[in-house]
Amino acid sequence: MKISGLHWTPYRLxxxxxxxxxxxxxxxxxGFIIRLDTDxxxxxxxxxxxxxxxxxxxxxxxxRWLAGWALEITGQPLAxxxxxxxxxxxxxxxxxAATAFSLETAAFDVxxxxxxxxxxxxxxxxxxxxxxxxxxxTVPVNATIGQPQQQAASEAARQAVAAGFRCVxxxxxxxxxxxxxxxxxxxxxxxxxxxxxxxxxxxGGWTVPQAVExxxxxxxxxxxxxxxxVAPVDLAGMARVRREVTIPLAAxxxxxxxxxxxxxxRAESADCLVIxxxxxxxxxVGLEIMELARAAGLGCFVTTTIDSGVGIAAALHxxxxxxxxxxxxxxxxxxxxxxxxxxxxxxxxxxRMAVPRKPGLGMELL
Length: 366
Hints:
Structural class: alpha/beta
Helix content: 25-40%
Oligomer: single chain
CATH architecture of the largest domain: Alpha-Beta Barrel
CATH superfamily of the largest domain: Enolase-like C-terminal domain
């Protein structure tokens, strides 16, 4: 099978409402939908949407990568995408991981369609080398709450539980004082009740002393875990926080590659790794990080970077290959944007997201 064309279409999706993190107030997601055509008549979809606010590069960086490769790969065997992706990740630079993810996803979409398998099952058969492995049909997911105002955050959390979510993730690190963080987290805990899991995401917003002081004050709220309490570059600092507080810590922003995951494990900085395939550079690397975490005795789960339906579906197929019991994954992010670009985004019912069962990625563009 040969590549007959590579095309990309830019998109711009505003957030549906206020969404804040410790690093930035996000207002819009911009990126590209990738279409990879083949001489078999099959077409694969991918998404490249870097996060400039978190150092992932800009859409213009992605477009330069794509323009540089489009003519060169046309007419080549589809299998040549694999060394191209490896080369992009080895070279690195702004937008490289997002581009690699989009190209690999599109290629895997085609290959899974050709094999008449959902992408989740194709990954299990071809990359995990476990043809008898049956990828799960649904994945438990958390609701993500990013409203900076306490009342709005509490109401959003209450609505999430009413919709069937059993885990809520609250963005933190935006309050001016420890007391402010305690009041906001406490209000959300009260809104969701004692039985729903509550996790926090600080997006590296605290210094080490601030993280220790704040998390000790928040221990009273029975938190499942806290994502990235301190700066991603400070693995030693995060290890110190981990030693001094009782709440499990998840490494998020520093999980940018397989080697970065190894560094986190060596530093004993986290109890859990957050895998974003669009940040680490693809589904293959995501699976390798899963195996690395498992071998090290760490937990892991998969999240999006708040993407269109194409990126969500790719991350969902990856998450379907986590070992049971699958932890709550951050995939239910479609409602945070004003559109999904696909005809049917994967459904969430009872706090679980259904894995597409059609061959390939299972997404159809609007």
